[in-house]
Amino acid sequence: MAKLSLEGMEFYAQHGVYEEETILGGKYTVDVTVEVDIVKAAVTDDIQSAVNYEVIHAIVKSAMQKPTKLIETIVERIGLGLKNHYPHLKEMYIRVVKHHPPLGGIVKQAVIETKADYRKKCGRCSKPMLCYQDRTCWCMDAGVMDQGRLEHLKLNFDNSCLCSDCVRYYAG
Ligand SMILES: [Zn+2]
Ligand SMILES: [Zn+2]
Question: Model pTM?
Answer without folding.
Answer: 0.78
